[in-house]
């Protein structure tokens, strides 16, 4: 019998990029799901929950439910606590309909699932993609249609995060240097900071930052 050998790059592509379940990957290689799990641990690939919640568990808990409009090209729902609209693909309705969705303080659409040994709070974008790291491409946390989401990892997700509130320029990677009386542009790539220069004009610093984002981040650069 030929010895099974699963390459790390192939496993990462199937499990992380394509979001396949351990069972689905096992079927591809003709092995048991436990074998796939061993390889995931071997390559230090973070394990994710594989949709352990069920309709029956939620009904037993007598959960409250949201109001929905399914008459259009995509679904619209309203959070139970604030009435915030949220969007989703109609084909994903079966995944979300038995969870009562709320708007969190951070603006995410979240709900509680009955999971052993205790309930767990989940975010809608994680539920519909079955992926632990998901990027809202245009920063609309209420829009969980697949066209507005993309699977990521923590490093990629950080590249498209909104500008911090304490930023002095309004643009991530551009800050005012009081001592030099100039605008400094920089970018962080793979946890390493790259200095892009100091500029008298703020617009020149922003342009340098945007150019660096295109070079280093590509499609993962900050989307307006």
Q: How many DSSP helices?
A: 8
Spatial shape: flat
Percent of residues in beta strands? 15-25%
| Major β-sheet profile | 3 strands, antiparallel
Structural class: alpha+beta
CATH class of the largest domain: Alpha Beta
**Order of H and E elements:** HHHHEEEHEEEHEEHEEEH
Our count of domains comes out at 3
| End-to-end distance | 54 Å
Helix coverage percent of residues?
Answer: 25-40%
CATH-scheme architecture of the largest domain:
Alpha-Beta Complex
Residue-averaged pLDDT: 83
The total of beta strands comes to 11
Could you tell me the radius of gyration in angstroms? 22 Å
Predict the CATH topology of the largest domain.
Homing Intron 3 (I-Ppo) Encoded Endonuclease, Chain A
How is the largest sheet built, in terms of strand order?
A: 1-2-3
Question: How would you summarize the topology of this molecule?
Answer:
Layout: H1 8-17, H2 22-29, H3 33-42, H4 55-60, E1 67-69, E2 75-78, E3 85-88, H5 93-96, E4 101-103, E5 109-113, E6 120-123, H6 124-129, E7 134-136, E8 149-151, H7 154-159, E9 174-177, E10 182-189, E11 192-199, H8 202-216
Helix pairs in contact: 2-3
